[in-house]
Amino acid sequence: MMVRSQILELLHTSGIDRLVHDLPDAMFVFDLAGSLIYANAQLTARLGVTPENYSLPFGSLVAAEQRDEVRAHFAAVARGETAHYTNAATLPDGRSVRVQVTLMPLLHNDEVVAIVGMARDIEELEASREIRSALESRLESILNSVSDGFLFFSPDWRFTYINPRGEAIVQRSASELIGRSLWEEFPEAEDSGFGLAYRRAVAENHTVTLRDRYEPLGSWLEASAYPTPDGLAVYLRDVTAEEDSRLQLIASESRLRSLGALLDVAHDAIIVRDPHHVIQYWNAAAARIYGWSAEEAIGTSARDLLYARHDEFDEATRRVFADGHWRGELAQQTKWGDTIIADSSWTLTLDGQGEPETLFTVNTNITDRKREEAILLRAQRLDSLGTFAGGLAHDLNNVLTPILTSAQLLAEQEADPLRQRLLSSIESSALRGAEMIRQVLSFARAGWKASECRSTSGSFWLSSGSCVPLPCRRTSRCRSRSVIGRRTPSAIAPNFSRC
After folding, report:
1. Looking at the domain 268-365, which fold is it?
2. pLDDT for 317
3. What's the pTM?
4. Architecture of the domain made up of 138-242
5. Which end of the chain has less Cβ packing within 10 Å, N or C?
């Protein structure tokens, strides 16, 4: 058996000591008796021992329960074998570490002369592996749970990972794709916008995003390609629903523009507001009727903008939310401070959940019509009053006629001056009554133009095709003065029976 000095000389002449001196792992040499002969710089730094100050036999630092196993490995290597094992070791400072050990025989003339060993502290390595494994597990869990697809490709464009959502989007399972070529499994993609985007991301080493329709899958897809040192990562979203909604929105906006153009040529004010009465739409007719432009009105409260009397507005609101529709007349105000009357029709629309969404309002300005109706009603009332006054005047005239006739006849035959004065007073009072009847008729029918008709039998009023006889005054205007002058009762009577 070679002694210590011979073994060290062998290590030196073979160059082993120089080779292992600065390795990051601990290197050591024990003789066959189990004594430490050589320790490299890493072992000295980690354990704080050298061959000169370390006299314990091989395996002394190993945990007691593992010493027999370790010494069995030592014995096997002494017979020319190689051993690999992991054990827990206690350092001189009391710290416990896990090390991975490799033992090899040092041969000279085909004879084992010493044991060469390498020890690697695997505490940090195993901790790193555990952390990496945990991170990989967590990342995979996250990728598997997200609502969008994740795909990873190797530099030669082979699938290395695809999450469940990615499987659903590409309509293939991971077992079918992992390890397979992208261009072989999806040949249409190679010359598509997606294939060009993926190659561009790798060539230019920056992220490329593309949204396009991929016909083989019948879907709109949005892909973001991220170059990585291991290949390419792709974040994939199925945006078919978004694109369908966008196209529907474009079509709806086009229809709304056409509808808006039609609404703007309407003569009625058309207003759309939300359930809180905030104006959302205001057509050109509304701007003409109320004075506020669409820019001024939209976004304001219809309740505050148009209504001075909130009680009528609130009652209409209560009815439309209860019944879904309301129609009636409302007093509204304009930008110029005028009050108008609107024939208003409200319709409530609901959303998909049955909740109030918008109030569609059509307002017709009926202020002029209401004014004309009031004028017509007044005219009708005046006409009725005139008809009544005419009838009343006719009846009163019938009462005054015999009085006046009798007074005139009696005056012709009476010689007593006192009675003559009394009869004259009666005649004057009757004539004043007839004048009052004429004034009533003139007031009640302001549009009537009375004209005095002359005939041999007296005078009377003509109006609207009817006539009201009046007693003939004894003036020069009356052609029957000669008859009255003769005071002939039979000649006077025809004056009041012509109509």
Report:
1. Beta-Lactamase (3.30.450)
2. 94
3. 0.37
4. 2-Layer Sandwich (3.30)
5. N
